[in-house]
Amino acid sequence: MLADKLEGTKELLSADMKKDFIMNRLPPYCVGDGAELSTPGGQLPRLDSTVRLQFKDHIVLTLGPDQDRSDETREKMIYIYHSLKNRRETHMMGNEETESHGLRFPLSHMDALKQIWNSTAISVKDLKLTTDEEKESLALSLWTECLIQVV
To answer: For the chain: N or C, fewer Cβ within 10 A?
Structure first.
């Protein structure tokens, strides 16, 4: 909540706080070797698939300037960070080389991502994107990172 209240102030961007929190958070608890957090399982999502978000408490969506462009006309992008691949063994060990895990999407994907975020399950074909290829690509990207599963 503090991060959201600070959004837009010059002192600190809430996106930085959210990213830092996720980068240093423990991954979801799982029994066994944790393979379900790092290896996509189940069916590959297709246009006719129904998908649902998993591990919602371990994912943040943020907006920020395109980090790959160095010119002054940097477009805003959507960044999705997650803690699924964080290592329990190095949690809170003061390692400055923490790697962030996540994805980057153009701003045009915001409505579709909100649909996934706010629904218990949604059909890939119903996502608010222009083409079927964009819909499948979004679902596949999220599935590859183990953020959604086919139901």
So the answer is: N
